């Protein structure tokens, strides 16, 4: 049996039924086996793997219900379809409670049972896909993906673990690029709301005229262009979490309405009179000092206290430089794998240069920097050279190679790498092309372009 071929065990004391179903399912591409009583069925289930059990209710030794009870305990992943000539609502309800996917009465139509089996496997495929996607989300937004083992980050991890299982409102403060949204997602996906929506709202990007509608929704005809009733972000997040990213950018007028939503846990759509209850966990982020914003009259004090139930401060890179090697190695591995490059890492000299560098863009800047370095590095060259030119270090030579700038375009970066390797290989085009992972013809064409730009080669 191939890995993707589904297998079905047919349990029925009537030989004709067993043969009929076996032939029907085999013709549909399923692997089949049969059993005439519960004892034989359990022996086969223990010996081989099956995806689905089709069983009669009346069996020679025990009832199909007893079989179901035993099977669901011993093989929880096995699907079950019940077939019987003694159909009743009571039996149907009991079978479904015990875990049966469906309940079919005899005499049955073969097309009907084929359809039920097909429906079961579609359901199971969808369920497996959802489990995979959920595991990917859990993996992506687990605590392990928030990189750091410094003391400031230990406090962050402790806060996340304590607050995740609660429904308390959280305010995450930190500089741009420090990873505030990643922390918010980690809180959601490690909470009991993780199977419900996580809705993000970039408050800084909300046009003031549409902000209320975006957050709370609107009724049809509420304003010009409102051709139908629309759910806002809070209603979309019902049962889950809403992230108010850069909450300090919300205007004073809308802040009052947001305060009411937090207090009452209910919304009113623009143009509507109906109150709609919402069960939403609120996480807000800001790169500003909200206490200062309150003092200067740009943010409501009562809203600040409503949001600041559990404050989490995310330190900037300058406050946790000991985490830079962890971050760098993490991003090198991630982007090397993503781009199919066998880059092993950085030399101590290159790493020290990165540790000493200022990173005003914080983790986001480090990630972008490493991604660019990995992408522009030749397949068989260590990332060290790219790091050095990006750090604007002079690498020596005849002076034909221009000084690199970290704000260089991709084309300028390509030019720098080609001229640098040509210089290192003393003008040998074959060796240069091999080092860069390009053909000699491509190299020749590039050099012709540079000559036309006035480069002395």
- Looking at CATH, the homologous superfamily of the largest domain is P-loop containing nucleotide triphosphate hydrolases
Care to count the β-strands?
Answer: 12
Strand numbers in spatial order across the main sheet: 2-1-3-4-5
- Give the integer mean of the pLDDT values: 83
- The number of helical elements comes to 19
CATH architecture verdict of the largest domain: 3-Layer(aba) Sandwich
Q: Uncertain segments of ≥5 residues (pLDDT<50)?
A: 391-404
Major sheet characteristics: 5 strands, parallel
Judged by helices, strands and strand pairing, the structural class is alpha/beta
Give the count of structural domains: 3
Portion in helices: 40-55%
Overall CATH class of the largest domain: Alpha Beta
Topology:
Layout: E1 7-11, H1 15-27, E2 31-35, H2 38-47, E3 52-56, H3 64-74, E4 79-84, H4 89-98, E5 102-105, H5 110-140, H6 151-164, E6 170-174, H7 180-189, E7 198-202, H8 211-216, H9 233-236, E8 241-245, H10 252-264, E9 266-268, E10 275-277, E11 281-286, H11 290-295, H12 301-307, E12 310-314, H13 324-338, H14 348-356, H15 362-376, H16 384-390, H17 410-424, H18 429-436, H19 440-452
Parallel strand pairs: 1-2, 1-3, 3-4, 4-5, 6-11, 6-12, 7-8, 8-11
Antiparallel strand pairs: 9-10
Helix pairs in contact: 6-7, 10-12, 13-15, 17-18, 18-19
How does this structure look, described?
It is a single chain. With 457 residues, this protein is of the alpha/beta class. Strands 2-1-3-4-5 form a five-stranded parallel sheet, with helices on both faces. The protein has a five-stranded parallel sheet with strand order 7-8-11-6-12. It is built from 19 helices and twelve strands. The longest helix has 31 residues.
